[in-house]
Amino acid sequence: MKTNLMLTGALVLTMVGTGCATKKYVAKTMAPVEARVATAEGKNADQDKMLTAQGQEIDQLQTSLSRTNERVTDADSKAVAAGTAAQRAAEAAGGAQRTADGAVGAAAGALTAANTGRDQAIARANEVERTISAKVDATVTMKMQGTETVLFPVNAYKLDKDAKAALDSFAAKTSGKDRYVIEVQGFTDKTGSAEANAVLSQKRAEEVARYLANEHKVPLHQLTLLGSGYTAPVADDKTRDGRKQNRRVEVRMFSPEVASLTAKN
User: Fold this and answer.
1) Taking Cα atoms as reference points, which of 170, 172, 152 lies closest to residue 161?
2) Could you tell me if 166 and 152 are in contact, meaning their C-beta atoms sit under 8 angstroms apart?
3) Residue 178 DSSP one-character state
4) Which of 25-34, 63-72, 248-257 has the highest mean pLDDT?
5) pLDDT-based confidence at 15, cuts 50/70/90?
6) Alpha-carbon span 187 to 229, nearest angstrom
7) DSSP 222
């Protein structure tokens, strides 16, 4: 009995001693594990923060991508609209070109017709002339029908009252005449250079022709004019009166006249 009690006590002590040792071992063994777990938990927390931040960045990228897609869609719409407008403009330009081509063709046709008509008219006129020439010999001369002289002050070319009255009287001779030619020739005295006198005499002739055309309706194609400067004096240029007579415009009217008319056999 005593022996059993001693064994039991020894066993109890052994177990007690063994239990303490086990706790220390467990504690020693778990400490590194707990440290690693804590470290892992810290890393997990950092990773969670990184994931959260990356998630926010992804959200921002998705927002930017959506806006970019919207801009791209808008740009595509504008590009399509621009393409449509360009196509319409090209079609309008093509229509305008076709219209222009048609107008050019019509103008070319009209010009061809006009040239043909002109050639035919010339041919008929030549034929008539040949017919008349074959039957008649005619001599036509230009006969002077009237003349007038208009005088000017020194270095002047405007018409005064007396000059206009003289031209009115001269123009009356054209009444009832269809075929006539009026020659207008301007002159100066010797005062001044030859170049200046040429210009001045031309202005005098032009002034007379302008008056006849505007006031008396003389057709322009029946007027010929020339400024001759100091080339044909009619008086002594050394005297005052002589210089006055040289500052002049001579106006002459001619009309055709048949001098002779003979029929051919």
Assistant:
1) 152
2) no
3) S
4) 248-257
5) very low
6) 5
7) G
> Which of these ranges, 53-67, 138-152, 179-193, has the smallest mean pLDDT?
53-67
Contact of 139 with 257, CB cutoff 8 Å: no
In one-letter notation, the amino acid at residue 80 is V
Q: How far is CA 220 from CA 157, 183, 256, in A?
A: 20, 11, 18
Helix (H) / strand (E) element for 131: namely helix 2-135
Q: How far is CA 185 from CA 56, 199, 228, in A?
A: 103, 12, 7
Token duo for residue 8: 């039991």
263 forms beta bridges with 136
Domains (range + CATH), the chain: 134-263 (3.30.1330.60)
Phi then psi dihedrals of residue 183, to 5 deg: -100, 130
Using CA atoms in the order 16, 17, 23, 25, what is the torsion angle rounded to 10 degrees?
-160
Is residue 230 pLDDT above 50, yes or no?
yes
Six-digit token pair at 87? 């196509």
Q: How many CA atoms lie within 13 A of 34 on its CB side?
A: 6
- Residue 223 one-letter amino acid: L
Cα 200 from Cα 228, distance rounded (Å): 9
Q: What is the mean pLDDT of residues 195-201?
A: 97
Please identify which residue in the block is written with the tokens 């305008």.
Answer: 96
